[in-house]
Amino acid sequence: MTHDAHVVVPTARFDDDLAVLTSQLGFRIDAIYPADSPSTGIVSGHGIRLRLERSEVGRPITIHLLDDNPDLPARLPGGTLIEYRPFTTTFALPLNQPTLAFSHHRGEEGVGRAGMRYRDLIPDRWGGRFIASHITIPDGGPVPDYVHFHKVRFQMIFVKSGWVRLVYEDQGEPFVMVAGDCVLQPPEIRHRVLESSAGLEVIEIGCPSLHETIADWVCPLPTGLDLPSRDFGGQRFVRHIASMATYLPWRVDGWEYRDTGIGAATNGLAAARVARPAGPTDERWMAQDTEFAQLVVLVGKVTFQAESGEPIELRDGDSVAIPGGLAFRLTAPSSDTELLDVTLPASPTLVHVALNTS
After folding, report:
1. What is the spatial distance between Cα 237 and Cα 74, in angstroms, rounded to a whole number?
2. Which long-range contacts (CB under 8 A, 24 or more apart) does 123-126 make?
3. What one-character DSSP code corresponds to residue 106?
4. 3-state DSSP assignment of residue 81
5. How far apart are CA 251 and CA 351, in angstroms?
6. What is the rounded distance in angstroms from the CA atom of residue 31 to the CA atom of residue 172?
7. How far apart are CA 320 and CA 295, in angstroms?
8. DSSP letters along 265-305, please?
């Protein structure tokens, strides 16, 4: 049985390193020996434990400290480097590099965190600005997840099929999401996936693509609180229940949609809707002033065509990410078609475009 763990730091300046760590950098001594001439010292602080060992030849390491104080030592006398990272830094937002990106569902997935299988819907990730994933859990039952949070600008989860049981910080008891339901995960809200049905499928869309997932081993979930209006980085948690939703006319004539509430909860940053045909559909060319837009076929099929491109039929599980300003049209939807429509901003302006297709 393992009782403890240390990062071993051999140093030729044992006494000096120990003094700086304990007197200036906030570490404390947990053990030191032998008493008459110490050569080993175990210190802890900031979530790590170091084992300093007196040595003729040192092997310096690098320690990252989340601290906003630039006046602390940047290097121990024995050579170990101290790199300071400001605690307030949440994420880097890369320059947006939009491309027309299609993804067809062919069952190709890679294994990711907690045994979940990931299919990348935007392989170039628009220069690192956005990420969209089709995530599946083949086997039902408990999920080997842990309480964690993400440093993000935007993140949502939509259940495509199956069910999943989750719990969120200050949002009451664990609950079950079924096909058609979704949540907005505001920045740094603690959460955990508890269990799922076999064959669970979810669509996850976030910004930026590269962001930290950080475990929280202290926060208990559930917290015993239900605070639906709590602010998390300027956003509120949203749980959309499909069975309770109503439909309104979509921005594309002949379609209708149900709103998930994400637009209001993000103060207009982003929105997610589910759209379906409601009669003869408008097949004119259109363009929209979006930072990001993605359509995912949840059920049925529809044909997508971009300017200067051939018509492409999108079926169940297929998707397309659409650059802002690009002219496109949707044609020949099946009567059962449902599209997940995600945009930044929440309310893009749509204009009809006259194209010479001859």
Report:
1. 39
2. 124/97, 124/99, 125/209, 126/96, 126/97, 126/98, 126/99, 126/101, 126/209, 126/292, 126/321
3. -
4. strand
5. 10
6. 42
7. 5
8. HTTTS-EEEEEEE-SSPP---EEE--SEEEEEEEESEEEEE
Identify the CA nearest to 69 among candidates 91, 85, 81, 89.
Answer: 85
- pLDDT of 80-116, one tens digit each? 998 887 766 678 899 999 999 999 987 655 554 445 7
Q: How many helices (H) and strands (E) does the chain have?
A: 2, 31
User: Do 29 and 5 contact (CB within 8 A), yes or no?
Assistant: no
Give 119-160 as a DSSP string: EES-TTGGGGT-EEEEEEE-S-EE----SEEE--SEEEEEEE
Model confidence pLDDT, tens digit, residues 21-69: 999 999 999 999 998 999 999 999 988 999 999 999 999 999 988 776 6
Q: How far apart are CA 194 and CA 60, in angstroms?
A: 41
Phi, psi of 2 (to 5 degrees): -80, 130
Q: What is the DSSP-derived secondary structure letter of residue 197?
A: -
Beta bridge partners, 78, equal none
